[in-house]
Amino acid sequence: MDLKQATPQDLAAALESAEAAYTGLRGCNLALDMTRGKPAPEQLDLADEMLTIVGHGDTAGDDGTDYRNYGILAGIPEARAFFAEYMEVGPKEIVVGGNSSLTMMYDTIMGGMYYGMPGGDAPWKDQGTVKFICPVPGYDRHFAICERLGIEMLTVAKTPEGPDLDAVEELPKDPAVKGIWCVPKYSNPSGETYSDATVQRLAEMPVAAPDFRVVWDNAYNVHHLGDGPAPLANMLDACKQAGNPDRVLMFGSTSKITHAGAGVAVMAASEANVADALKKMFYSSIGPDKINQLRHVRFFKDMAGLLAHMDKQAEIVAPKFAAVDRALETHLAGKGIATWTAPKGGYFVSVEVLDGCASAIIEMANRAGVKLTPAGATHPYGKGPADSFIRLAPTVQSVAEIETAMEVFCACVELVCAKKLQETA
Amino acid sequence: MDLKQATPQDLAAALESAEAAYTGLRGCNLALDMTRGKPAPEQLDLADEMLTIVGHGDTAGDDGTDYRNYGILAGIPEARAFFAEYMEVGPKEIVVGGNSSLTMMYDTIMGGMYYGMPGGDAPWKDQGTVKFICPVPGYDRHFAICERLGIEMLTVAKTPEGPDLDAVEELPKDPAVKGIWCVPKYSNPSGETYSDATVQRLAEMPVAAPDFRVVWDNAYNVHHLGDGPAPLANMLDACKQAGNPDRVLMFGSTSKITHAGAGVAVMAASEANVADALKKMFYSSIGPDKINQLRHVRFFKDMAGLLAHMDKQAEIVAPKFAAVDRALETHLAGKGIATWTAPKGGYFVSVEVLDGCASAIIEMANRAGVKLTPAGATHPYGKGPADSFIRLAPTVQSVAEIETAMEVFCACVELVCAKKLQETA
Q1: Half-sphere CA count of A110, side-chain side, radius 13 A
Q2: Residue B150 CA, distance from chain mean position
Q3: Which chain B residues contact residue A49 at CB under 8 A?
Q4: Checking CA distances to B394, which of A35, A55, A400, B241 falls within 20 to 30 Å?
Q5: What pLDDT, on a 0 to 100 scale, did the predictor assign at position A385?
Q6: Roughly how many angstroms between the first and final C-alpha of chain A, as a whole number?
Q7: For chain A, how are helix, strand and coil distributed in percent, rounded to 5?
Q8: Which residues of B touch A145 (CB under 8 A)?
Q9: pLDDT at B347 over 80
């Protein structure tokens, strides 16, 4: 029954029923957390062999270099070759870094602000207002970097094929617009993968700033839910073909492949951008943790090894996403108060509820022991304009825990939305 | 024989003898490197047990937290407690980071420039010219950070007790002076350890800028050559006692204790400074590599374990420093053309030759297959004013290799200096 069309009596009955469900669940003293995209212990276990794969007497690279010592700013050759295949670029187009692609992205944007980017005349901070295009809903940490660095955020909506390009293409006519954040595959939090046309238009669109960059955070490159990684056109190739080889900076990491805190992060870009990044890195580093890079290369052996590893991850993760979808279908389908994504990969399900209801739903769930990402976290400055987006992160809890959490969540959605409809009737 | 007092005949004879020695050594096709303070493989071997000390099923902290996952920006509690003892501060006064204290220091200075420091009214970059005090000779990477960030460097000389404080104390009367670089123990490259009086005066001296910082790079805290770590007064305590608790930011790392590329870096400072650092770090990191921190804590067990480890390091390193000193004494003592340090720890020997001779000596040594740190690298902008400082890094080569390299070096010193004396006679 579509609650928006319901009689006052039916609406009251739905509200009562949701309230009863909620009250019952609240009595269970739950402590469940669906706030962040964290791997579950079972996923981390899959990579534990990596921990002891590099030992005494076995720390040198193929050319005999001792990876325990200083140096090799761009990462060990074995890891550059491996991650070149992972990112679908050449080994010279790769920098393999430390444990965090967020750090690499922050340093990149800060580097643009403070030192400038190839193609530009001056550091961004010396060019007046700096603006970035932010497809929404998006990743809170991207927006936090912009906010922290004083970069103005221009939001554009998303479509099932990526950002709304008609809106995007208007913005870089302003030379103050220096970039766009993109999570091109299994996007955070909305789940879509960019179509070939989206990739091509982003590579080709005219931009006024010669130092404009597409920040391509391919965090979920291989993180499918059972059907294998979704195809995604090669953005660096597309940029090269469009005559804009320096436009894109691509990032990835093994944080959600091996161990979230002890993975390896990579940047892929044109050789000019790689040279610029290494020049900037020189001042802050004598080299990354090469032993941990060696662990990763030895553990995976090759891309087939990594893909087989991700199939095992999918076996663990997919049932959790199925549990989320099942609950949403069971409790909310056809009620006209919520829509949701059914992603083929990544770490999130996005739920859109009636305007003005998201914060109240999250607060109610929290009172019943189910922590959810704050409403608005998916938007710049933490403020969703309509208070309607909720991000669910179902990986870290068990299937049973997710089923319980989703009972709570669905009761909260129905309760808050029915009350809202009652008030506005 | 003091060559400065020698007769022309004696000088010519010395030159001839040095030339003969040099020519002979040049024929040996040497390939020796004394440029950087890198540990030798035998030193790295001492920590190899650490590589496999954390394995499957054994990745949790004392409180059950799984250290394979995201989070814990300040470092795992076990590592904070351990390094608090190492840095002689409280666990809340410690941040344990990634593999590089250089990165932490760069991020700290960049953070001051872009966001400001507690006590200050504005980011340093918005306060006009920013200046740092640079005791010379010093560490090239410190000076490179200043140069890169556009910070003006004010050099002061060093004494056997630390920087020349009469000179230092004049400079912070200018509020544009925001800091001073210090390597307080076994200083790079000059080897001295700061006296208690130096520590106290640095803690107490009046400074005009409320956001002035002493950057205390205690890189060689426990890196003695056999007599145990030199005593060094606790700079954070001294600052607290002087009523300037936020003045100092102390850094350290295990890069030259365990593995140079895969160590753990730490910052120690007042709780206000730690809170500020963590706030800045939040935007660029979801947490450090906690597994590697756990490896370190498990490997050392406690400070006694770390100190015993450093005794083993000293057994390897001390004979190399002795070989350097022996060669300098044998070939150059009493000749009036060079003086040198005999440090009790650290990674370097500093040689001061006749003005205008350092570059030529290094070039000659290089032509004979002995690479030395470029002359002037120990000074801002890579330019020693008198072209007289040479830094020797004798750790990475074997004793036999160092003996050979020092034959070359001493021949080059005598040759270049004797020629200089001939020309200026």
Answers
A1: 24
A2: 22
A3: 56
A4: A55
A5: 83
A6: 16
A7: 45, 15, 40
A8: 283-284
A9: yes
